[in-house]
Amino acid sequence: MDKDRFYPIEGQEYPSVTTILSIFRKPQLEHWRGSVGNEEADRLMEEGGDFGRRAHENCARIAQGSR
Q: Quick check: pTM over 0.85?
């Protein structure tokens, strides 16, 4: 699955912050993953991703004037 996301703004396509940051190596994250194990790291990252998606959805609703 392609996780790169691009957003159209005034006729131009711009990559998401997550897409931009994905090109950088993250040694601290690699260390954390090694300390908790891949299975637990995957679970925690999925949980965090779900939380982040809900937060983004709520912010978008508020910005659009609906709740």
A: no
